[in-house]
Amino acid sequence: xxxxxxxxxxxxxxxxxxxxxxxxxxxxxxxxxxxxxxxxxxxxxxxxxxxxxxxxxxxxxxxxxxxxxxxxxxxxxxxxxxxxxxxxxxxxxxxxxxxxxxxxxxxxxxxxxxxxxxxxxxxxxxxxxxxxxxxxxxxxxxxxxxxxxxxxxxxx
Length: 156
Hints:
The chain is an alpha+beta fold. It has helices spanning 2-16, 19-63; strands at residues 89-92, 100-104, 111-116, 122-128, 133-136, 142-146, 151-155. The chain has a four-stranded antiparallel sheet, with no helix packed on it. Strand 3 and strand 4 (122-128) form a beta hairpin.
């Protein structure tokens, strides 16, 4: 029985390393190499896109006014106050200008302001001498000031 075992053992060992197993192993390695190349190509694409995003981020961050950083290197980003005085231009209600009572600066003859909805419907407007009050409603979308001088927040 022992002799039979020693005769069969080499045959089993040889069958484990047959050409069929080598072909399968080569096919698997080829597939893995192809998939690895696809992953490398995808990584290269993602790295290029990431570099572009970092460049855009640096450009945008360069546009934001900042005040000096503290000893820990933290830089405070100045946020525009929705209550800060306004001048000519468009302002989005709630994010750039607060709803509430505002007063235009006196001394301008052709002051015009207009408050509109998101659809462009006019909620209120005025043309004439500056120096009066206006109410910015919370349901307004934007307000446009032209030649009204400095517009100051009075109350909410």
